[in-house]
Amino acid sequence: MASAALRLPENVPGDFFVDSTCIDCDACRQIAPAIFAEAGDASIVHHQPETDEETKRGLMALVACPTGSIGTTDHHDAHIGIDAFPELIADDVYYCGFNAESSFGAWSYLIQRPDDQGGNVLIDSPRYATQLVKKIEALGGVRRMFLTHKDDVADHHRFAERFGCDRIMHAADGAERHGVEQVIRGEEPIEIDRDLIAIPVPGHTRGHMVLLYRNQFLFAGDHLAWSPKRNSLIAFRSACWYSWTEQTRSMQKLLAYDFAWVLPGHGRIHHEPPAKMREALRDCIDWMKTR
To answer: Where are the domains positioned within the chain?
Structure first.
């Protein structure tokens, strides 16, 4: 829970605030950009909510914050933020909220599908929170959990125990050590079912994978994200834990696929027609080769 005594001085005066425990994961700035902004190595409140919708977005950011660094001085109904998750992004794809500190605030996603089409898929693990678990259960539970890489596994074991789901992870990132049920090996893409393709993309970590859903949604983990500053796709050079050369090579593999959405664990979500997305991907690869 955020402490008013630790309130960062850069916050504008008023109800919402960020305290000094902030780890600068960027979640609040994505959820409620009208309220939160970057200041050095932290997020701060640059605008106090003035409407019910702005207040709701602020409370969603408070709930999602992995370190509990967002607080309010006024009384608010916490359920306004809690009940907003999972948040529909498009079609049958949701953002889970409840980001986990152990994943440095990485975003997790849920695909809701009928059982006869393979059932629901959880991509990476959010924080195990009773309120979220109940909401996911109401949406049909979890049949599979896809873990993109070792950094963002968070509370995967608790979700697996609760829903009895099969986890999917690459051997090179310690899948067997984590007790994962379906272990992927090598670099060949694996068709999990007719709508889901697991694509190994070593680079950020040795066993990193992305998940392509319906040739529309690319769940990118820490491999790829959108950069508003560059107005293009980007990889994180300073957070490449295995090999930048391999990550650049892996990025080129994605040119063989169509997708209209990039849904990362860190960084900005982006949506464009596949042709535009491929153009942005080529730009990203050219940029990576100069780093």
So the answer is: 4-80, 85-288
